[in-house]
Known about the structure:
Blueprint: E1 2-11, E2 20-30, E3 35-39, H1 46-54, E4 61-66, E5 69-70, E6 81-84, H2 96-106, H3 111-124, H4 140-152, E7 158-162, H5 170-187, E8 190-195, H6 198-204, E9 207-212, E10 215-220, H7 222-227, H8 232-238, E11 245-252, E12 259-262, E13 267-269, E14 284-288
Parallel strand pairs: 3-8, 3-9, 6-7, 7-8
Antiparallel strand pairs: 1-2, 1-4, 4-5, 9-10, 11-12, 11-14, 12-13
Amino acid sequence: MITLKNIVKAYDVKRGNSGANAVDGLDLEIKKDEFVALLGPSGCGKTTTLMMLAGLLKPTSGEIYFGERLVNHVEPKDRNIGMVFQSYALYPHLTVRDNIAFPLRERKMAKPAAYERAKEISKIVQIDHLLDRKPAQLSGGQQQRVAMARALAKNPEILLLDEPMSNLDARLKLDVRDEIRKLQRDLGVTTIIVTHDQEEALAISDRVAILNGGKIQQYAPPHELFSQPVNLFVASFLGNPPMNLISGAVQESNGDGVQTVVTKGFNYVIPAARKLPSEHIGKSVKLDITQP
Length: 292
């Protein structure tokens, strides 16, 4: 299990200023073998959170645990993680084989053993026929698979994915998304993906943490986010097509008990099956007008 307790990451805006919190009091638990998405708009703190999990950034305050181990000051190389960057970060002068074997060779594994592991993992991600090519000779989807193979080569306990599909076209993105999900299930590796793509997050993840302003707005399975959004931000961020929100107030007829949302432009009669509890009468509400 991965546990983040009251994590804060602050950046000084300028000298003498307390600065801004990119992550502000974040609490999160991720179960073993779970696939979790960090989803939100640009600047919400999702990539900063991923970088702290990787050890590339250190939290200003709070605690990060991998199992029972506090890892705040553990170096990235000692965390047993695999990471796929948005740019893939492949070494252009190395072959696919050497790119995949690189983290193993850094751990002083003998070259024959490292190459054997590279061949083994390349078969899993279906690029074993590309081992002698250089990155420039590969398509975007093939480069993404090489980056994934390199991250998995050392049998990580945790796989971190930083918008790994953002550089792919729409058709290829769907294929790669399904492959990543299948691979994660087959290998049983705890996986965290950062994305701003709602459809991608909801399709691939067991649970989704929606962030805004450095705080988690809701953390739940995809179906729960859709059916029970906890606030207006979650509802509007996930809404597709985009929501049109109109302010109004709930009124109820004394005679027949019919409830109506009264707005400046029109009145909306609430269906009997969706009648609101009495405490909502007279209260302000937001009405979503979305064309089906």
